[in-house]
Amino acid sequence: MSSARRSRASLDAFLAAALLALVLGCGTTGAEMGGSGTGAVGAPLPPLTVDTLSGKQLKVASFKGRVLLLDVWASWCDPCKQELPVLNDMARRLKAQGIDVLAVSVDQERANVERFLRAHGGRWSLTVAHDPRGEIAELLQPDKMPTSYVVDRSGIVRYVNTGFVPGDASTIEQHLLEVAGH
User: Fold this and answer.
1) Which domains occur in the chain, in start order?
2) What pLDDT sits at residue 40?
3) pLDDT (tens digit, 9 = 90+) per residue, 74-95?
4) Quick one: three-class SS letters along 66-93?
5) Low-confidence spans in the chain with pLDDT less than 50
6) At a CB cut-off of 8 Å and minimum separation 6, what does 15 contact?
7) Which of 6, 60, 79, 175 has CB atoms 3.0–4.6 Å from 164's, for a disulfide?
8) Using an 8 Å Cβ cutoff, are 88 and 78 in contact?
9) Residue 178 burial (CB count, 10 A)
10) Do the Cβ atoms of 82 and 164 come closer than 8 Å?
11) pTM for this one?
12) What gap in Å lies between CA 71 and CA 127, rounded to an integer?
């Protein structure tokens, strides 16, 4: 085998292993945890800036003063596909109670995010953003996809839900309402 073919085969093997790690990291069960990154329970949410789908930058700190559910998701993640419509319904019901939902996609291509949103009705109550720079993953280091962070009015992470199964929705909502004082 030539040197170029061995290099290509090594690259292909690396890419396959990386894809497998991403797929296996796409969690299917939720649980409270401390988190492995700076988004751990009890810690302040680090300064994060994401892109809105209209192309403007959005500082996550702009939600300070309100309770925030920051959800990290991707269009290729099956549990994320189940979770986002549930969070959208939650966002619609809880907004009047001072609770916002920000769903940040870590997809590399914004077109994949837009295609997912259109395929699921196109009308969203939650705020959808995109993090093509990978800042969210780098700073928060979520263990699985999706990962949701309940953040209090002062910007402190109060609960982390990793992965998603339908039963997680009521637990997430309960934590949001408790943090909001309802």
Assistant:
1) 3-180 (3.40.30.10)
2) 84
3) 999 999 999 999 999 999 999 9
4) CEEEEEEECCCCHHHHHHHHHHHHHHHH
5) 2-25, 27-38
6) none
7) 79
8) no
9) 14
10) yes
11) 0.79
12) 10
Residue 100 in tokens: 């916002």
DSSP assigned state of 19: H
Q: What is the pLDDT of residue 119?
A: 86
What's the token pair of residue 87?
Answer: 């969070």
Order the strands of the 157-162 sheet from edge to edge. Answer: 57-59, 49-52, 127-130, 99-105, 67-73, 147-151, 157-162
**What pLDDT score does 118 carry?**
87
The rounded distance, in Å, linking the Cα atoms of 164 and 78 is 9
Contact between 79 and 163 under an 8 Å Cβ cutoff? The reply is: yes
State the DSSP string of 111-180: HHHHHHHHHTTS--SSEEEE-TT-HHHHHH--SSSSEEEEE-TTSBEEEEEES--TTHHHHHHHHHHHHH
HSE value, Cβ hemisphere, 13 Å, CA-based, for 75? 19
